[in-house]
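Sample A.
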Amino acid sequence: MGDANQSTPPKGWDSIKKHCIEHKLDVALWFTRLFTITFTLNYFIPIFGNPYSAYHRALLANAATSALRLHQRLPRVSLSAEFFNQLWNEDSAHYLLFSLIFIYSTPVALALLPVFLFSLIHFASYSLTLLDALGQNSWWGARILISLVEFQSRNILRLISFAEIFLMPLCIVLLILGRTGLLTPFIYYRFLARRYVSRRNPYTRNMFRELRVYTEAIANKESIPPFIRNALHSGIAFTCKIAPQEQAAS
């Protein structure tokens, strides 16, 4: 009887198997996010393989995640203006474009930060779902790590939005240095504009406002030389000028 009990898989694993069969797309997203996390870590800590290859694989994995998420959000494809408008408003479409922007350029380490952190948040969230399917008391150490990620999720999203914004001037610098293509800053501006007016994620828009308030506070200090004050105000005015038209509605 002891041998029979040992050969019978735990009920929790049966539940995991059933869950994976019923939620194939969600499980596929969990794996692509795991790949993004793994390849990003391998880029910064090159234990296995070439870090250059790991960089591109991380962006490819993120592109796969974005494509799967788009399929999940918009399962029916149609060649209509309404469909393409819905597609362009999806956050997943934004990050599919993001991956395509940087996958064809020389490695930009900062470009991996947003995709890594987004993958980490969603990977942790769905890992909790899998652990719940496995059993309430299973893998308590992993549950603690997941709780830490979820507790810091707001700060993580703010860090992502800051990285998105800072990548814009970085693209211009890389263009001047000859490390990226001529169209990269222009395409990235379109990406950043869509992030600014995102319906589901207001963090980029809020970060722009926080940076504006912070910059204005610095510019208005009496100790700031006039030429720096003028430069800061000019930068604020230029940024507001090129901001999307939806700014007022937002």
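Sample B, a different protein:
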Amino acid sequence: MREYGLDKDFKLNLEGNHANLAMHTYQHEIRVAREAGLLGSLDANQGDKLIGWDIDEYPSNLYETTAAMWEVVQNGSIGPRGGLNFDAKPRRTSFKPVDLFYGHIVGMDSFAAGLRVAAAMKEDGFLDDLVKQRYASWDEGFGKSIEEGKENFKTIEPKVLDMPQSELRASTQSDHLEEVKDTINHFIIETLAK
């Protein structure tokens, strides 16, 4: 899109199930588009990660819709004229008009809940603080020098190869992943209980 200047007129429509088929998360796809300035609209669907083809289910996974809406909140909106659209379809066992009605309800409710939780996390600053702490080493010293382009592989290699193991281990920190997931779970539970 950039090569032909199309990025000024067109943005991306991202689908959760296509991310799964590419072995990515929906949040990853949205973040890449967001950071590239190409976030346009979102297909409000999900797939079954075990099936391996595009089945376009109505979304119901609150953890995934929260992660998707986190990227939207970080972006300030979905896109300049984008929105959520349903590319979901009737299931083999769920095909009556009433099923489509409830499918749209669960989909919109799931994304609305995800948006509420993402907004609560943004207001709290929890994830922003976590990212800032995680990448703090890029704000000073060697990390800052790399980020400013003052280093390259030739200058980095001898510094890293000569660094004692004890120093490498001391600079390694736990991401506390389970604690982070637990905190996100609490945001989901507490926000939706209100």
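Observation for Sample B: Residues 2-124+163-193 form a domain with the TIM Barrel fold (CATH 3.20.20.150).
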